[in-house]
Design goal:
There is one protein chain. The protein is mostly helical. The chain has three domains: about 90 residues, Winged helix-like DNA-binding domain superfamily/Winged helix DNA-binding domain (Arc Repressor Mutant, subunit A, Orthogonal Bundle), CATH 1.10.10; about 60 residues, no CATH class; about 120 residues, no CATH class. The chain has twelve helices and two strands; from the N terminus they run H-H-H-H-E-E-H-H-H-H-H-H-H-H. Strands 1-2 form a two-stranded antiparallel sheet. Helix 3 packs across helix 4, helix 7 runs parallel beside helix 9 and helix 10 packs across helix 12. The longest helix is centred in the middle third of the chain and has 30 residues. The radius of gyration is 25 Å and the shape is globular.
């Protein structure tokens, strides 16, 4: 994912209550430098405030100590302070900068992400056509362009390799699963995904995202409604969900064979009924909002 070259720092940052409290702590200057480095890192990785090296690897204390060039114990102390002051959160063992939208222009980030997707798509097409050769006059400029193209192709090959591995690495990671199936995660949704994970687990949250995608209802409110229903039914696994649907189908099949006094039994599609109920709950939530 493309890095971002800037973050927003307000001119009155040192009037902030949390910053003023930090300034009265031992090694306050070091803590503030680490905080600014964290903001810059979050901006550079461009993952909605999540501190991740790539789709599979999140930054840990040792990695932050190395790239920030600070002792490990100092990094741990700083992160504890930032977490206590709710400046960062830990979501599924991943550090997340709280209220990330304060430090970035979300619309601009979307443009950067879109530009990255376009660039990757173009170079993927170039790789597909790489077997096509042509005779050209090689100049110094051509050589420079070829070298640049080779570098870009190497980067693209790494990205393609990540894409091939992403199914296994994100099977139970609802954050990447959401981005793959629904779209970019707004910062406000990250906390809600965390709550859903606490309620029903990562795999079922992914399953709910999958069903929302299948029903072409790609919104968090729809996903959240599914998660709440599964929580209320005490579902723990995908098998619990599928077994419940199977029982409903069996009940439907049995009832359809009842021809009492030549009465033609109606057949009901319980999947459609459940989907309609979800939509009704979602509509009620929208009206409340």
């Amino acid at each position: 994912m493309a890095d971002v070259k800037w973050i927003k720092i307000v001119t009155n940052i040192f009037d902030d209550e949390k910053i003023r409290l930090i300034e009265n702590m031992p090694e306050s200057d070091t803590l503030l430098v680490i905080w600014l480095k964290i903001l810059c890192l979050a901006g550079r990785t461009n993952r909605s405030g999540l501190l991740m090296l790539n789709d599979r690897i999140q930054y840990n204390n040792e990695m932050l100590s190395s790239i920030f060039n600070r002792p490990l114990m100092t990094i741990k102390m700083a992160l504890e302070v930032f977490e206590r002051f709710e400046m960062i959160e830990i979501i599924n063992n991943t550090y997340y900068v709280s209220n990330w939208e304060k430090h970035q222009n979300i619309e601009t980030l979307e443009k950067v992400r879109e530009q990255t997707r376009i660039r990757v798509a173009k170079h993927r097409q170039k790789l597909i056509n790489s077997n096509v050769t042509c005779n050209v006059t090689v100049t110094e400029s051509n050589v420079a362009e070829e070298e640049l193209e080779e570098e870009l192709e190497e980067e693209l090959e790494e990205e393609l390799e990540e894409e091939l591995n992403i199914l296994s690495t994100t099977k139970h990671n609802p954050f990447q699963y959401y981005e793959q199936n629904i779209g970019t995660i707004p910062p406000s949704i990250i906390k809600k995904i965390k709550v859903a994970v606490d309620d029903i687990g990562e795999d079922l949250v992914c399953y709910a995202i999958e069903q929302a995608n299948d029903y072409n209802k790609r919104s968090w409110k729809y996903i959240e409604t599914i998660c709440l229903a599964w929580k209320n039914n005490n579902y723990k696994t995908r098998g619990d969900v599928d077994n419940s649907k199977s029982k409903k189908n069996e009940k439907r099949d049995k009832s359809s064979t009842n021809k009492f006094i030549n009465f033609e039994q109606r057949n009901y599609d319980f999947d459609k009924i459940e989907k309609k109920a979800m939509e009704m709950v979602l509509d009620e939530n929208n009206e409340e909002d």
